[in-house]
Amino acid sequence: MSGVRAECVAGLVPGRLLRWLAVLWFINLALLGPLSAGVATLTGSENRLLELSLPWPRVVLWAPLIEEMLLRFGLRRPAQAVWLVPLLLIGLLAVETLAGGLLLAAAAACVLAMLARLRYGWSRAWLRRYRRAFPVVFHAVTLLFAVLHLGNFRLGGADAWLLPLLVLPQWGTGLVLGWLRVRTGIGASVALHALFNAGPMALLWLVQQYGLDA
């Protein structure tokens, strides 16, 4: 199986993705979500997403693809991520321009080309070092993913130690997405991320459509 197919297609098993989606929604709705909401109420923090009219393509397609490629693609392809991540970051900074769009397209093309030709791209010695450090890298990426979502909140007078509790749902989701990426490929983590984001977007749409009319 080619590198492209293994990364992008092999993990796209509908039954598996739907089972993981059910697990994530249950954990977030029954456990982590209520805890995060309680901390937000306690600290006077507000979720900014309730006030924004975010387009579906951006939340359900664009964000999952970019976040997975930036944060989790390198978990199994560290050599490629060394150059891919800076390229994606530059493209994101200029995403509203034609140059930014072309740069992101070039990054995607380079990824596919390198996956088709290279397995890892690092020497065995460097790979051994990376494997030893992998648990730290994995959890650091998951924590970074959660911390970045603090930007979804308008923070109140919260003590610093309470802030991580606001993004517990993202932390739990990040663990699952990271595991899926490592075990089955980047395509599976992008797909699950997109499906997961579609749930809150549907709820927000319902609130905006019917809550405002109440």
Automatic annotation (TrEMBL):
Superkingdom classification of source: Bacteria
UniProt GO MF annotations: peptidase activity
GO annotation, biological process: proteolysis
Protein keywords: Hydrolase, Membrane, Protease, Transmembrane, Transmembrane helix
Record carries keyword Protease: yes
Record-annotated membrane-spanning stretches: 20-44, 87-115, 136-155, 161-180, 187-207
Name assigned to this protein: CPBP family glutamic-type intramembrane protease
